DNA sequence: GTTTGTGAAAGGATTCACAGCA
DNA sequence: TGCTGTGAATCCTTTCACAAAC
């Protein structure tokens, strides 16, 4: 193992860890860079990129510096080069297989969402517990019964599971995914999933975001009436 | 104005600002507390609540302390009381009117999502630019043309706009919302919106979360092969 | 002149640990 | 005894500011 690490380290100076806050922004940079590439731009400065994603240029530079030293002083960054390095850092070149459980409205939206496949994710299967939905054709995939979950995971080498079921069945689906060997789960159901150590869960809660917005809207309304001191707005 | 502040301040000791990280967790606490209330629990300790939402008890206590001192030492917190205080802090008692633009699959999912209405949001209107979708009945609401946007906002006192359109039309819809007077926007389209100062935008990007998951999955795969040092997993 | 890469400083958030109260 | 509320310490993130490189 030691020589493998050594070999990598001499090939390119690898940092041990990219900060979590940076990881969360890399996909945003990536999308902006894809747009730039399509529009024909070949280079971009940290200042211009910051403008596109909303933030400061110093933050952009520090973020990108965690991937390596891929900029040119006085010039900026090569768009294509950055796309490559960010994609690799995010593991998007791996072509992960994803299984999506629950094809209600949200599941439909996710299955048809170009952002998944265009970033190298391969939807290996769509599953649903509702027999009336099984067999339906969505985005070129036929919906299979959840009973197939185990088989699907083993057959297709799925590493990421997406849960878009109602809250009530999410934990059960999660348990089955974990039992089948899935170690990364993206959860859209409005529950906090309990998972064993070694399983990574991320949650997207549509209502949470609206409530955060409500907080700020409320603050603004209150400060307008003078009930609380005015606060800055993260516009 | 001064006496209003005074009156409020003596009624309950108001802190000037709740940290952003805390605000982001309040909706999560709120959901857990609603579940607890339904199951008949009347009190909950910070330790037990931490268990439910995933986190440490000290964090829970510090978060709740920003709302005021509503716990009882040796006992815990009153579930109903916490629900009330968190709801008020988040402005959920205001009954905000929300306008949803774009009723594709995602828009359908959002319109039918119970988490919105059950938290006090009122969907004032559904809008879509596609004439074939206008007139459709979704969750008891008839879809109206985007041309009505201005009228809808003015008539119904909308304060929050939700954008669930394709990326291409999101900025235009955003501009129209802002022009009509909307100051809070929840954006599901995969673009960074440009807004004037004083407008609050929050973004939910379905693909971003998947890419963050991919990063960790990739890290795990690499560390298994010894190419990079092992990293902890935020399970 | 322009723009990167990065130490240093500043600002937040989390965790620790315990005094204080029921 | 049990649990909250909170200063103090620690850790993480952002911002500043400037030397080095083009």
Write out key terms for the chains shown:
homodimer, three-stranded antiparallel sheet, disordered N terminus, 235 residues, DNA-binding, 10 strands, alpha/beta
What does this structure look like?
2 copies of one chain form a homodimer. The first copy, chain A, has 235 residues and is α/β, with parallel strands linked by helices. Chain A is 47% helix and 16% strand. Chain A contains 10 helices and 10 strands. Chain A has helices at residues 2-11, 20-38, 46-53, 57-65, 79-90, 105-111, 114-117, 149-156, 167-180, 206-224; strands at 43-44, 71-72, 76-78, 97-101, 122-128, 137-138, 141-145, 160-163, 184-187, 200-203. In chain A, the strands form 2 sheets. A 7-stranded mixed sheet of chain A has the order 6-7-5-4-8-9-10, sandwiched between helices. In chain A, strands 1-3-2 form a 3-stranded antiparallel sheet. In chain A, strand 8 (160-163), helix 9 and strand 9 (184-187) form a beta-alpha-beta unit. In chain A, helix 2 (20-38) crosses helix 5 and helix 3 crosses helix 4. The first copy, chain A, is globular and about 60 Å long. The termini of chain A are far apart. In chain A, 40% of the residues are buried. The model of chain A is unreliable at 1-15 (pLDDT under 50). The interface between A and B is large, with 83 and 83 residues. Chain A binds a DNA duplex (22 and 22 nucleotides) through residues 19-22, 45-47, 56-59, 61-62, 64-65, 69, 71-77.
Overview in brief:
The structure is a homodimer of 235-residue chains. The first copy, chain A, has 235 residues and is of the alpha/beta class.
């Amino acid at each position: 193992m030691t020589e493998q690490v050594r070999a990598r380290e001499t090939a390119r100076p690898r940092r041990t860890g990219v900060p979590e806050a940076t990881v969360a922004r890399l996909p945003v940079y990536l999308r902006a860079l894809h747009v730039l590439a399509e529009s024909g731009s070949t280079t971009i400065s940290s200042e211009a990129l910051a403008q596109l994603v909303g933030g400061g240029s110093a933050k952009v530079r520090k973020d990108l510096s965690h991937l390596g030293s891929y900029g040119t002083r006085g010039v900026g960054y090569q768009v294509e080069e950055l796309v490559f390095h960010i994609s690799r850092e995010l593991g998007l070149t791996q072509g992960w297989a994803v299984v999506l459980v629950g094809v209600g409205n949200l599941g439909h939206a996710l299955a048809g969402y170009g952002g998944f496949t265009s970033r190298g994710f391969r939807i290996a299967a769509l599953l649903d517990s509702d027999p009336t939905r099984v067999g339906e054709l969505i985005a070129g995939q036929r919906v299979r019964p959840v009973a197939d979950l185990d088989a699907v995971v083993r057959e297709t080498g799925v590493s990421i599971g997406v849960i878009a079921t109602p809250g009530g069945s999410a934990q059960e689906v999660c348990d089955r995914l974990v039992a089948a060997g899935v170690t990364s789960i993206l959860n859209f159901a409005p529950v906090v999933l309990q998972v064993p150590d070694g399983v990574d869960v991320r949650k997207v809660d549509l209502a949470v975001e609206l409530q955060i917005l409500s907080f700020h809207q409320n603050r603004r309304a209150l400060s307008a009436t003078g009930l609380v001191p005015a606060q800055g707005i993260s516009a």
